Each structure stands twice: as C-alpha cells, then as structure tokens.
Fold:
Amino acid sequence: MYKFIVAPVLGGVIGYITNDLAIRMLFRPRKAIYIGKFHVPFTPGLIPSQKDRIARSVGKVISEQLLNEETMRATLLSEKTIATLQSKVREAVRGFFEDDRTIKELLETRFDSETIRTNTLVLEDKLTVAICEKIDEAKIGYSIVDSLMGNIMDMIAQNKVLSMFMDASAKKAIRDKLADKINELISQNAPETVHSTIHKYRARFMNMRVCDIYEKYHDKEDWLIERGTELYIDILGSNMEKVLQALNLEQIIVDKISGFDAAQLEEMIFGIMKRELNAIVYLGAGLGFLMGFINLLF
Structure:
C-alpha cells in the first residue's frame, strides 16, 4: 500500500515541478549568465533571447492576418460602424443647441489666441485665392457683355451709318474686346474686394454664438450628416491601403514588444495566459501521477 501511494504522488510532484520549471525557463534567467568566459547554456531564457524574432512574428501575423486591409475595410466601413458614427456626430451637433459660447470662445478652449489668429489669416488667404480662381474661370465678362449686347445692337441699329459696318464679325470683335477688358478689370480688383469681404464676415462669424448657428441651420442637420458620411466612406474607402501603409502596424507592434524588458514581457504573457500555463503545470502533475501508478503495474 505504501508503494501504491508514494510512487504516484512522487510522479505527480516530479511532473508538477518539471513543467513549472520548464515554463519558468521560458522567461528565466532574464540575462545571459557567464562563468568566466563560459556561457551557461539556455541563458537567458527562450523568450528574452528571442524577443526580437517574436516581436517580428507577432507584428507580421497581426498586420497581415488580423488587421489587414480587408479586415479594416470590413470593420470601418460596416453598416454598424457608420450608424454609430452618424449617431455620435448627431449627438455632438445637437449638443451645440445649448452652447451659448461664441465660435472664438469655443476655439480658445482648444487653441491659443495666436494659433487661432494665424490659422484664420491663412484660411482667409486660401479662400481668397480659391474664390478668385473660380471667378477667373467663370469669365464673367462674357456674361455681362452678352446681357448688354442686345441693348448696344439696338442703339447701333438706330444709327444707319454704324449699322452699315456692323456685321457678325464686327459684333464678335466688340463682344470679345469688351469681355476681355471686363475680365481684366475683375482679375485686378477681385483679390482685394474678395479678401476684404471674407475678412469682414470672418470677424462676424467668430463672434456668432454656437447655438445661434445651430438654430439657423438645424434643418440642414440630416443633409450635413449624410454628406459627411459619404465623404468618410469615399476618403477612407479609396485610401485604406495608403492609411495602413502610413500607419505601419507591423513596425508599431515590433517596436512596442521590443521595448518591453524581460520582466514586463513575462508579466504581460502571464497576465494573458495565466490559466492556460497553470493548466500545463497541473497536467504535468496529473501525467506524473498516472505514470507513477502505471509503473507499479509493470
């Protein structure tokens, strides 16, 4: 009876100790040990010695299989994500209804006065350039001349001498000449006029209360959210690959894991897999107990 008790128990203890030791040797020792110039085998432990390789492997698996373009697209462009986004935006927009701060005061909660001033001036200049470019492209002079040509032709027709020389080519020459001159005058004077107008409305806009703006345009809320959603889908959908390349998830993960010291890595892995690692230790004890019992039968 003594043998039937001691042998299985001893086998279980040995199995427990060997498995527990094997798991701890994955992490310990944390640094290489030398006796003189002789490097003690299996030091440091497996995980500290292979930390960089493990980091690269984990980074590759996560970036290529878990957080790849297909997965990110399916997640970020899913109906659930878009619905959540729309709900959050609508909630934020409606929060403006009770905000009686001015636009300037709202911006000052996030940025200093000099940053706000600099960026608004830059925005004024960019808007001025963009609007003036559109004005030049529109060739407003031709629209103005076309609206006046009828009256001019009527006046010329009343003069028999002038009407004799006013054929189609002459009419076109007059039209083009007047239109080009008007376009030239507009191009010369538009920047100053547009900039002064933008500056005036910018000052007025900065002093408007947020709640007043919301009250004025709240009927456009659905339209704005729909347009914003379309913009989100279009930008993210067509640039997902570039976003992932710029993000470089694999390198982020490699840098993060490589930055852990051995103690942090051990704590992290034990925190995640404590139950599984303990199960391996107890399984070793169970197998040792079983082997000790079977050994008595032979």
Q: What stands out?
A: The mean pLDDT is 81. Residues 12 and 289 are 4 Å apart (CA to CA). The two ends are 16 Å apart (CA to CA). Residues 168-206 form the longest helix (39 residues).
